[in-house]
Design goal:
By secondary structure, the chain is of the alpha+beta class. The protein contains 13 helices and 19 strands. Helix content is 27%, strand content 26%.
Length: 472
């Protein structure tokens, strides 16, 4: 691009596909889903940061209008790259993400990133040797290394249960931060490791073709030194452990780390303010914002000529170099050209619909918020009031500045059937013209979301509806 005279934006809305081995939870986890994305391109890190913050404010406004609970959590950028990202989560017991938040400060973070903030820290090792201990195992992707994390066993565990029967609450993300080659997708890492090494080996394979298997033991700071000094694989009676002791008999090491290996729990001290306790919630991710900087623009040569400053200084980079070839960056920035500062933002539309339905539905049916409902109100009537129902529709919906988006249910069905169907569909407001309309010209207004069932005269109906719509 010769010059950048205005902010560059690219919006897309498309069906995407996930290699989901086991679709579950209705629309929350499907192989096919609808996604709305926004890609931003700015001239400087300062402008890109402002754009990023504007998008976050817009997302906040959207979820506020939906009137559903949501959490904005600092997140790990993962394979997308960049230094800053935030996730928008809907709290639900069906969620697969774990969000840690403090009700007294602004600390809200995905557990994956929170564990990295823990890092190896200096703790004073416990001297209490009375507590039972349990083991967590992880195996490397090449199956050459097994990591055993030893932590105090859950207090509810039976003293007669083995460590294998009582998995310790070890933070797996912290373990992967300490040992990046760990394969957390393996459900039974100990069995996988043992089976890999006891299976028949090829007679032609060279004994030095691969490194020998090894075991690394890392102890939580609550495990006393007296236990570490006497801890041995031979102490355990599990057949798997007995096989393991033969495999790694001469290749076992102890990590010098003295850190907190446990996952965050409700009531733990907030690591941000240090004064209050955190709350742990399961949640479903509805949206994600990424500040990418020049993570992609540098290697792809997506540059522009700075107006009026063709030979100006290089714009500072906001992320780690995306390419190992320094010549790529040199060519991209030749003759005063600068890389775009990029951002990537997305909302899962189909997942958001499922989250709203899950949050707001009751035993009678759905309860759509105003901004998502097919219509703001539905008008129901008995056959004798069909003409009057049309007049009410005209009163509410004829084009004007403060009109109501209403639909008239004129299907050839009974009033009770229509009322149940309206509740099932989830219209925010249901207006009923029944016997009291014939006698007193009163409409019955039902708003399940607010728990309201009110008789309102035709003259006051439009003002009453508009006032209640602002509440839902």
């Amino acid at each position: 691009m010769d010059a950048i005279g205005s902010l560059q934006r690219a919006k897309t809305r498309a069906r995407k596909y996930r290699d989901e081995p086991r679709p579950r939870q209705g629309l929350l986890r499907t192989r096919e889903f609808l996604m709305k994305d926004l890609y931003t391109f700015d001239a400087s890190p300062q402008e890109a940061e402002q754009t990023y913050n504007n998008v976050r404010l817009t997302y906040n406004s959207l979820f506020d209008k939906l009137r559903i609970p949501y959490l904005v959590a600092k997140a790990d950028s993962g394979s997308m790259g960049g230094e800053v990202s935030h996730e928008y989560h809907f709290p639900t017991p069906n969620g697969e993400d774990t969000i840690i938040s403090c009700g007294s400060c602004t600390y809200t973070i995905n557990e994956e990133l929170a564990s990295r903030n823990l890092g190896p820290t200096t703790f004073k090792r416990s001297t209490d040797d009375s507590a039972p201990y349990g083991s967590w195992f992880g195996v490397s992707k090449d199956r050459l290394q097994l990591v055993e994390a030893i932590v105090p066993r859950a207090t509810s565990a039976s003293e007669h249960q083995s460590p294998l029967q009582t998995p310790a609450k070890v933070n797996p993300y912290l373990m992967r931060a300490l040992y990046p080659d760990l394969d957390l997708s393996i459900e039974e890492p100990l069995r996988t490791f043992v089976n890999h090494w006891i299976k028949p080996r090829s007679s032609t394979a060279s004994p030095t073709a691969e490194r020998p298997p090894s075991l690394v033991c890392i102890y939580d700071y609550r495990v006393p030194q007296s236990f570490i000094d006497t801890h041995s694989l031979s102490d355990k009676t599990s057949p798997l452990i007995q096989k393991l002791s033969k495999i790694v008999r001469h290749n076992r090491s102890i990590s010098p780390e003295c850190i907190d290996l446990a996952r965050f729990r409700d009531g733990d001290q907030c690591p941000n303010c240090g004064k209050h306790s955190v709350k742990i919630q399961q949640a479903v991710e509805l949206g994600h914002t990424f500040y990418l900087g020049d993570r992609y623009s540098n290697p792809l040569g997506a540059t522009f000529a700075a107006p009026g400053n063709a030979d100006g200084p290089e714009a500072p980079s906001t992320s780690a170099p995306a390419t190992k070839d320094p010549a790529t960056k040199g060519r991209a920035l030749a003759q005063g050209r600068r890389p775009f500062q990029m951002g990537c933002h997305g909302i899962g539309i189909s997942r958001m619909i499922a989250a709203v339905a899950d949050s707001l539905a009751d035993q009678q049916g759905l309860l759509w918020p105003r901004v998502m409902a097919p219509y703001e109100a539905v008008i129901l009537s008995t056959p004798e009031h069909t003409a009057a129902a049309e007049e009410v529709w005209d009163l509410l919906s004829l084009p004007r500045e403060d009109s109501v988006e209403a639909v008239l249910d004129d299907r050839d069905r009974g009033l009770v059937w229509k009322m149940k169907d309206a509740d099932l569909i989830g219209f925010p407001i249901v207006i009923i013209l029944g016997t009291q309309y014939r006698d007193e010209k009163l409409c019955e207004v039902a708003i399940r979301r607010l728990g309201i069932r009110q008789k309102v005269s035709v003259e006051e109906l439009r003002g009453y509806i508009l006032e209640r719509l602002d509440q839902i």
